[in-house]
Every structure is written in structure tokens, then in C-alpha cells.
User: Which sequence fits this backbone?
């Protein structure tokens, strides 16, 4: 059987090399320590709670070493990890616990109040305080690490689930995307091939642990390839610039909003980022002026595209094409089949709009205990992303919009991302988001939410005039509303649900 136990393998090859380090505490784990601790975890969890393959451990905690240790536990045993979003309300967390039905719920002390009164905890067999887990397994013990005999046999296959990651979703309730060991392996291989990852690379991971970006952009590929990861609990522009320099990091993943905040930091000019090979950027298209700003700093930008259900490394745009193909997500990575299809399922020609559908070993087998959602999304072996794209004559992909973001104005389909891309090129506009709102005459019309760049003055008339002659009339927003900043969700993406609430107050 091919092993999924990466910690065990690297403990053999590079026992004394640091695998992960926690920024806030300063604690670090070598690959040997990571393997030994994960064995202790396995022995404790199986003896104390009789956990076995297929059982679930839900975790309500910020970024910490325990997540990495528990991932190794999952690789050794087939136990499934369920990271919970600690930013949600107790009501929302209650749904996640009820849906995932964990056998053990691990809670960081600071989040105890989040679960104290929710009904779903009654169905959980074992509630475990994170501090108790640390004590029982000796994570922060001053005693030297010793080898512990394995009390388990390798039982996981590539088809077995490793994680259940809940999507923020466009439906009434989040869906638990099943992420298998095989998906993790192939995503790691895709990432290594496209980003040239080696065991000498170093990165910082500060995405929230309930997001696929935390696990699968760089963390799991780095663990797989024996590289180093620094863990931070949250993003702070000044701290990250300092960390990139002082920890000699080579690759960094972020969303454009984070890079904008870093570029605006007073530390930006004097930060020495000469060891950085490139930044990996996802979430949304990065504005050209921001790309140019980082390129002038000597930091290449590599943009890409991914999804929770397929992994975050589906496509990649080489940094050499960052300006020439501005707005593109690049081309699909290795071991994917990708095509753009119309409503009838027929592949469209270059330049035409179509939904991106994907097939390959990184595609989820489905949603946790939700066969209806699975059947609606995976059809005839193809995962339907819900993203409308076009492919140019050179094969580069461009995201036009989400199907669900589209609105219909006067019987014409309008994709907000197309209009947003144009308006972001206005010198006085820092950021923009557009949604469809009810219109008595046209059915729907566009409302643009605009953040003005510092030092500029922009009016509604300026915004509309900038669109004239560049967009069809039905695409031009009817309404313009100015904000100090755009609301964003936990993944750093624009929160369009919040914009819809704002729109009802400004019509």
C-alpha cells in the first residue's frame, strides 16, 4: 500500500529539519517531532475515545500546531478532520456540528462561549478542551521527545476522506466538501510542478484553518515536499512584511486585498524581500497597478484559481505573463481536464463564454451526506464550477463571473466582473463591486459600489461617463454608491450578500 503518512517518511529522511513553527509562541516541530507527537495523539485518541477510521474530529480553534499534528493523525488512521469557522455565530456553528456529526469536538478555551448553549453539542460523544489535549499529549512539555511505539496500522487509501471543509456557499446552509487523501496528494503534485517547490522553500501560512487556502495552497504541498512553514494566527500587514524578511521566506500566498495593505504599509519601502521567489495570488483578479507596484519591488506575482471542492491550485499564470495577460487566471495545471461548456453541455469555441467544468484526481467525490447537492454539481463525471469564463486564442482563461452573480437586464445577461474589471482601470477608483438590483423597467439593473482612491475625487457622473463607449448600454450600472471600503468575507472575497443588504437601504 502506498503510504499517505508524510510525517513518517520525512522523519526518516530529514529528522532534524523544522517542518512547522508557530509565530506567536515560538514553538517549532521538526519532522521527527511531528511524527512522534502525531503517534502520541493517535495512541491517546484511540485509547481514550476509541476513534477509528471514518470517525470525525471537529476543531474550533485558531491557527496552531495542533492542526498540523491532527492532519498527520488523519494520514495515519483515516480519522477525518472538520475545521470549524470560529468567526460564525453560535447558531451557524450549531449547524456545522449537527451536519458533520463529530465523535470528538476540540475547542480552544477562548471559544468555549461559542458552544456552551448550542443544541448540537448534546450529540457529540466527547468534548475536549484544547488545553487538555496539549497537557495529555505533552505538546508544550519541557521533557525531551522520545519515540513512541505505533499502536496502529496504515489503513488509509487515496479514496478516503481527510478533511471536511465547509463552503461559505450560496445556498441557505453551508455544504461540507469532502477532501480526500488522494486529492491532497495530487493537489500537492500539481502545486510543486507549477511553482517549482523544493525542500529548501519557506513560507508563512496565515489563512484561517477553516479555509482550503490554509491547508492546500502551500501547507500540504510544503509538508509533502519537506519544506518549512511558519504559522501565524492572523494577518497584519506590518508583521507580515517583517516576517517575510526576518524568516528568509521564499514563497508567500495572499489575496489582493492583503497585498494592497502591505503595499500601503510604511514598512513597504524598506522591507528587504530579495529572497522571495514570487507571491502566489488568488481569490480575485489583481489590479494591474498593484502588480506593477510589487514587480517594481522585485517580487513577481503568480495568479491562479481554485475552489474548495477541487483544491486551490487549479490554474496558474506565470509571472512573466502577469501584465501581458492581466485579468487572466492562466492555464490549467497538470492532471486536470478542463473545458468551457454552454447550457447544453457543448464545448464552446475560443472567445465564447462558457461554464468551466473540471475532471481529474483533485475533484471532490461530493458533499458530506448531501447527495442532492453532489448530483447537482457533479454530472457525467464533470464538476460544474458555476464560473463563467472565456479562453483566448493562446489558451489563457479569464473569469467573467459567477453564474449566481449574473443578473438579467432587459433580457440581456450581465456579468458584474466584466464591468468591475473596466472600472478598476479608472485612475480614481481603488476598488469596485457590482450587483443586480430590482428595476421596474428592465427587471434588474446594476448598482456599483465604489471605493475612491486616496487623493482623487470621483462622482457618479464620472463613473458612468467612464463606461460610455466601452460597454454596451445594458451593462452600464444605473446606480452608484460610494463606500469607505468593500465588505469582505473570511476568505477576503467581496461579501455580495452584505452589499445586497446595503443596496436595500440606498435605492
Assistant:
Amino acid at each position: 500500500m502506498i503510504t499517505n503518512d508524510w510525517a513518517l517518511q520525512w522523519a526518516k529522511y530529514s529528522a532534524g529539519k523544522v517542518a512547522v513553527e508557530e509565530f506567536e509562541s515560538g514553538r517549532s516541530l521538526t519532522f521527527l517531532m511531528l511524527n512522534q507527537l502525531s503517534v502520541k495523539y493517535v495512541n491517546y485518541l484511540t485509547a481514550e475515545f476509541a476513534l477509528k477510521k471514518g470517525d470525525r474530529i471537529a476543531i474550533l480553534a485558531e491557527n496552531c500546531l495542533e492542526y498540523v499534528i491532527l492532519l498527520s493523525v488523519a494520514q495515519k488512521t483515516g480519522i477525518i478532520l472538520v475545521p470549524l469557522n470560529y468567526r460564525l455565530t453560535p447558531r451557524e456553528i450549531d449547524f456545522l456540528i449537527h451536519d458533520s456529526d463529530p465523535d470528538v469536538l476540540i475547542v480552544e478555551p477562548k471559544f468555549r462561549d461559542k458552544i456552551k448553549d448550542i443544541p448540537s453539542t448534546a450529540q457529540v460523544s466527547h468534548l475536549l478542551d484544547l488545553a487538555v489535549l496539549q497537557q495529555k499529549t505533552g505538546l508544550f512539555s519541557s521533557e525531551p521527545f522520545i519515540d513512541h511505539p505505533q499502536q496502529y496500522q496504515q489503513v488509509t487509501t487515496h479514496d478516503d476522506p481527510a478533511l471536511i471543509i465547509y463552503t461559505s456557499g450560496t445556498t441557505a446552509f453551508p455544504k461540507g466538501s469532502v477532501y480526500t487523501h488522494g486529492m491532497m496528494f495530487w493537489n500537492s503534485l500539481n502545486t510543486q510542478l507549477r511553482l517549482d517547490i523544493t525542500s529548501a522553500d519557506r513560507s508563512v501560512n496565515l489563512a484561517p484553518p477553516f479555509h482550503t487556502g490554509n491547508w492546500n495552497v502551500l501547507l500540504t504541498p510544503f509538508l509533502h515536499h519537506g519544506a518549512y512553514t511558519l504559522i501565524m494566527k492572523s494577518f497584519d500587514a506590518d508583521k507580515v512584511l517583517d516576517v517575510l524578511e526576518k524568516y528568509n521566506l521564499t514563497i508567500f500566498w495572499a489575496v489582493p486585498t492583503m497585498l494592497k495593505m502591505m503595499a500601503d504599509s510604511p514598512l513597504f519601502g524598506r522591507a528587504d524581500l530579495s529572497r522571495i521567489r514570487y507571491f502566489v495570488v488568488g481569490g480575485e483578479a489583481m489590479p494591474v497597478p498593484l502588480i506593477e507596484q510589487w514587480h517594481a519591488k522585485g517580487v513577481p506575482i503568480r495568479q491562479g484559481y481554485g475552489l474548495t471542492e477541487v483544491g486551490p491550485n487549479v490554474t496558474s499564470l506565470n509571472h512573466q505573463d502577469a501584465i501581458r495577460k492581466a485579468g487572466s487566471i492562466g492555464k490549467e495545471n497538470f492532471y486536470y481536464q478542463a473545458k468551457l461548456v454552454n447550457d447544453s453541455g457543448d464545448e464552446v469555441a475560443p472567445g465564447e463564454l462558457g461554464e468551466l467544468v473540471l475532471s481529474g484526481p483533485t475533484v471532490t467525490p461530493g458533499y458530506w451526506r448531501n447527495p442532492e447537492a453532489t448530483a447537482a454539481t457533479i454530472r457525467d463525471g464533470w464538476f460544474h464550477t458555476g464560473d463563467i469564463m472565456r479562453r483566448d486564442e493562446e489558451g489563457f482563461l479569464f473569469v467573467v463571473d459567477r453564474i449566481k452573480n449574473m443578473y438579467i437586464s432587459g433580457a440581456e445577461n450581465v456579468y458584474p466582473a466584466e464591468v468591475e474589471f473596466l472600472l478598476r482601470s479608472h485612475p480614481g477608483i481603488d476598488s469596485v463591486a457590482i450587483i443586480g438590483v430590482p428595476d421596474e423597467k428592465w427587471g434588474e439593473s446594476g448598482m456599483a459600489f465604489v471605493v475612491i482612491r486616496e487623493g482623487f475625487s470621483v462622482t457618479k457622473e464620472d463613473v458612468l461617463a467612464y463606461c460610455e463607449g466601452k460597454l454596451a448600454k445594458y451593462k452600464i450600472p444605473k446606480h452608484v454608491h460610494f463606500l469607505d471600503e468593500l465588505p469582505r468575507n473570511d476568505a477576503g472575497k467581496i461579501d455580495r450578500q452584505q452589499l445586497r443588504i446595503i443596496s436595500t437601504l440606498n435605492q
Observations:
- The longest strand covers residues 429-439.
- The mean pLDDT is 91.
- Residues 49 and 278 are 44 Å apart (CA to CA).
